[in-house]
Amino acid sequence: MTGKLYVIGVGPGDPELLTLKALRILKEAKCICVPKGREEGSSLALSIVKKALSLGNKEIMEAHFPMKKTKNSNELPKGDKELDNKWAETVKNILSRLNKGIDVAFITIGDPAIYSTFFYLYDRLLELKPELNIEIIPGVSSINASAAKAKISLGLADEKIAILPANYIENLKATLEKFDTVVLMKVNKVFEGIMHTLTEMNLLNNAIYISRAGMEDGKVFKNINSVKEEDLNYFSMIIVKK
Amino acid sequence: MTGKLYVIGVGPGDPELLTLKALRILKEAKCICVPKGREEGSSLALSIVKKALSLGNKEIMEAHFPMKKTKNSNELPKGDKELDNKWAETVKNILSRLNKGIDVAFITIGDPAIYSTFFYLYDRLLELKPELNIEIIPGVSSINASAAKAKISLGLADEKIAILPANYIENLKATLEKFDTVVLMKVNKVFEGIMHTLTEMNLLNNAIYISRAGMEDGKVFKNINSVKEEDLNYFSMIIVKK
After folding, report:
1. How far A233 CA sits from the closest chain B CA (Å)?
2. Cα gap B186→B143, rounded to integer Å
3. What is the pLDDT of residue A43?
4. CA nearest neighbour of B107 among B69, B167, B52, B188
5. ipTM of the complex in this document
6. In the prediction, which pLDDT does A149 show?
């Protein structure tokens, strides 16, 4: 009997935004796998789980996610020996538990389908273990949490929604023209450029800035002009509604 | 002391996909408000809640949502006397509980920000009670649940995601050209037209059909050509990944 791999979205920060299913599986799992990369989300996932349940004598396994992306590529670099070794190690660690019949719960902030690094790992896991027993548990994404905090709808009836990671906003103007709602993710590093486009398109009054939506110190700025440098952070987004 | 209005996303169908927060508030609330419209989602929300907790002697208040939309408008029709009266009644019912100090939990399937009819009500509530005490509890949306069930990511790194309600797909081709992932909601009534466009664009192999993602009888069709008429239903979507 091999173990089962659970990929669990633990929500945007508030431990109460875990689902009942996530909590049950986390309580049952003997091994919790925590992604550890350079991005700030990695450590947050474990801190959410720690607030929701006692980790007792579970094994906490760190999975190293070496993210060395180039700006124009959304593929992980292949052929880089050092990175390849790190990935291989993570895959090996997960498979060794599964092969011993131990269930592994891989945790990820928000929802697994929304920009979670897990999917970089998935192909590599399947390659070595095509019969992998895996279940993905969806979670509350930061996008939904941000809209809830701002008390706005992302879409009603026939409205169209676009979600753009803000480090790649060259077509921002065209998207703002065609969609009813545009969600810009991870805006902290490109905030000025976005403000420029919003000003140009006369959309400043349609934009809301939400910082750390699912967390205790989360903030909503209905007046985006009032956002100061210290308000910018990795867990932030802009929602533009026309 | 006036009561507080909670708007609660109860997730896509599986009662275990309720959040801990949703469950706590639903247990505490004396009055649960259930939207009742012509769309099939209305009755589902209550059935999810019933599986997760005992409703005991809570008041279940039905909110009538008269949806008489025109095809080209995403606004609710105003000026229609009969519809206006129905809306006014729902608003009055909610406010009367709040004014007596009773908390009201308004439930909605999936996540409140994703096409929930609640937002039609919100403006009307604020008009009569500008100081309304309201909290929106985000939930797992059917979009995230569908991706989880299909074991796919909606976006990685710099990928762009578009969400289109399928009854308004005139720009489908342009969107499929420009976005990495396109989520088509409520495809049952326009399935043939979508298949036509996918065939034309040679994207049939990139499309997955997911039916009733969050429910026990949920199904994933990785080969979209195998979808039969009886597989089409209101709780369905197509995810196209390029």
Report:
1. 17
2. 11
3. 78
4. B52
5. 0.93
6. 97
Q: Which residue has the tokens 């309580």?
A: A27
Say if residue A83 is in the same domain as residue A24.
Answer: yes
The pLDDT of residue A68 is above 60: no
Q: B173: which residues sit within 8 A by CB, 6+ positions away?
A: B197, B200, B201
List of residues 6+ apart from A92 with CB closer than 8 A: none
Q: Do A120 and B156 touch (CB under 8 A)?
A: yes
Is B156 close to A21, i.e. CB distance below 8 A? no
| pTM beyond 0.80, yes or no | yes
Pairing of the two strands B5-9 and B134-137: parallel
Q: Do A145 and B134 touch (CB under 8 A)?
A: no
- The answer on B216 and B132 residing in a single domain is no
For residue A6, is it left (φ>0), alpha (ψ between -120 and 50) or beta? Answer: beta
Query: Which of B103, B137, B171 is a domain's end point?
Result: B137
Same structural domain, A118 and A196: no
| CA B223 – CA A91 distance, rounded (Å) | 29
Convert the pLDDT of each residue in A143-187 to its tens digit: 999 999 999 999 998 899 999 997 766 779 999 999 999 999 989
- Name A19's bridge partners: B19
**Cα–Cα distance measured from residue A90 to residue A112, given in angstroms and rounded to the nearest whole number:** 18
Residue A138, min C-alpha distance to chain B (Å): 5
Task: Indicate the number of domains in chain A.
Answer: 2
Which site among A156, A179, A184 would you substitute to test the B interface, given the most B Cβ atoms closer than 10 Å to its Cβ? A156
CB-based contacts of B211: which residues, under 8 Å, 6+ apart? B218, B219, B220, B221, B231, B232, B233, B235, B236
